[in-house]
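In the previous chapter we treated chains in isolation. Here, by contrast, the input contains two separate entities that must be folded as one system, with a combined length of 586 residues.
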Amino acid sequence: MEQLTEIRWHARAGQGAVTAAKLVAETALAADKYMQAMPEYGPERMGAPIKAFTRISPDPIDIHCNIEHPNVVIVLDDSLLDVVDVTEGLVDDGTVIINTCTPPDAAKRSLGVADGVTVACLDASGIALDTIKRDIPNTPMIGALAKVTEAVDIDTVKSLLEVTFGKKFGQEIIDANIASVDRAYEEVVVA
Amino acid sequence: MAEQKTVATTGNSVVAEAFRQCAPDVVAAYPITPQTTIVEEFAKIVAQGRVHTEYVTVESEHSAMSACIGAAAAGARVMTATASQGLALMWEELYIASGMRLPIIMANTNRALSAPINIHCDHSDVMGARDSGWIILFAETAQEVYDNTIMAVPIGEDPEVLLPVMTCLDGFITTHSIDRVQLMDDDSVTAFVGDYEPQNALLDTDNPVSHGNFAGLGGPYFEFKKTQRLAIDCSKGVIERVGEAFSKLSGRPFGLIETDMMDDAEVAIVVLGSTAGNVRYVAKQMRAEGVKAGLVKIRCFRPFPVEEMVSALSDMKAVGVLDRADSFGAEGGPVFLETRSALYDLESRVPVVNYIYGLGGSDVRLDLIRTVYTDLSDIAAGSASLHGMQYLGAR
């Protein structure tokens, strides 16, 4: 189980974190890995802080408890940084990816994380507004995840977007989402 | 072997998919968290015409099970799903379904009972139905949910059994998490479950019968209950036989209980449902530290697999039983009571201790499981004495 990757998503309800967590799980399956994706269920309303979780492993995953020590934390809304302790339990060599206009050096300082933690920032909302025309930053954050970690592969993400979004949306929206993944992959900056 | 495809899906989705593949004549159900997505998805499948099921929307779970009983007595293959308060509201019908020997299949998405209100996982709901005459299967993973649902059909419908079957999956943990699951092709499932040939169907007008008659003082009530007891005892062999056939078809093992690392184990944990995975993970860690830890997962809770439990546990130096439900006022939880009772007739006494855990979805952390194995090691080494039932990790 050494290669178990545990991801925790922080978002506001409506930003697509659960869809993103599912997409990442499906990407892992496409790479013949094992995975779990689970939202944290509670009273929910649009805009409220929510969490979702993803586990990815080359081996079958036995555990079903909450993720307490994530390897990767993804923050879809930087206004949560003042509200939620997003780095709680993060491993010392973990990764934090934040949707923000703040440069990563400054973000890392204000998070107060260990030196070994990788902090990556991108304006995923800006990318989403440019491409998808709505502030739904979930797919750009997956593009950034593909760049910064080895949890998912960008080509698999894009081909799965065709399949899974193809069931719900037209080609225009699919193309916009794929463009958002590409741009995020290029534009994410690591501290 | 069946053709299989691997998908990323949830426990609830695979129930709906297995229902579609088993093609029930009637489904009557009422939505309740965390079961809702089962009936939602199945309703969609019906609306799309992908299965020829009469889908009956009702105003409560009491009516849902009543409609299921009526349809099953008429001679239909019937399925439904519920949870928690919904199962509690079905209570009187549960006994009628089993007493009338109707092989209804029901998924129960395990959820705590009020009060206080809680939507998350524990086994209080199903344990309230443990004496109702239903066969009760538990699943650790979404894969086992799928497998149990399909196996439930030929088990319940076997002419030697004719009993309703409840397939349990842990609320949210299994119902809503996306997991990796292998689904079989439709033809293999169709052939495996076969056509339903109802016994004593009300709509078989050439052979008129009546069901659920008055059997009062001096009537055959007592003897009737004896045949019901014989039927559920006899179901054990049928479950094993169906499980074996299913294993051949799917390539996945099935046992009334499933043992892990038990060959040379000295201490063992007994558990139902998704927590078995957490226990397996910790048992492997304990093994690396020199503790001879093992796991017994009960997949079939009713009928209770006494012989299998005795054979798995008789040489243990200490056994910890995890219960995700309390039996208030009893000496411990339901699984503990059954397990210790099963071991009573052994010549040498096996120390058994009980932990109530995870009520209302309280997280089953790995360090809590480790505490149990550590306690068991201390008991096995003689450095700790047996303790009474404990609430594992409660503040």
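The first strand of chain B starts at residue 4 and ends at 10. Chain B has two domains: 4-250, 257-392. Compare these points with the single-chain example from earlier in the chapter.
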